[in-house]
């Protein structure tokens, strides 16, 4: 198959940060008087595809948090900036794969639910920002990854063809949205983030275990399902 552009999620896709996200919201809510329970778990799951301001707004309303949205957002930002600036690391093979795409002059962009400033901080510290032309955050235009707008906006920035612009995601909702919108997709799976692989495979053109088994050639050598079958030679 052809690849002329690439749209990457960040958290859990090119960096190993989802364990931070699984803990940061319960810690935030506990600091503001709301202990973790089944209701909190369900609320967090429903909010995952949202931008951070929308997620804060939804959690405050649903869980009756007394603190203001601004206070909660500032506290959350402080916590994630600390992790992004000190402890978060890339997947061991993600930079090598990004370098392959860069060497082939394939433009890349980030599409994330996280604030662009925090993602940029992380990627610059890890010397990975060099691979991307921009960071599109769900905050930018009130995007939600359960809707295709963030991927279509990233596509406009890349100025590439949708059918040959690949979306790399680790979350079921992202893969589902991108695949339904006509993008080829790569499911970036790992062993410790508890993602439901069975729920993601139907929406994945390719599956990789955190880039350990993926190369540019893997994508390019994949048969194009839209190509017309070769005609049999006349005997």
Automatic annotation (TrEMBL):
Any one Gene Ontology molecular-function term assigned to this protein's record: phosphatase activity
Statement: the UniProt record of this protein carries the keyword ATP-binding: no
Keyword Transferase: no
Secretion signal span: none
Keywords, ordered alphabetically: Hydrolase
Alphabetized InterPro entries for the sequence: HAD-like_sf (IPR036412), HAD_2 (IPR041492), HAD_sf (IPR023214), PGP-like_dom2 (IPR023198)
PANTHER family in the cross-refs: 2-DEOXYGLUCOSE-6-PHOSPHATE PHOSPHATASE 2, PSEUDOURIDINE-5'-PHOSPHATASE
Protein name, entry field: HAD hydrolase, family IA, variant 3
Organism of this sequence: Atopobium deltae
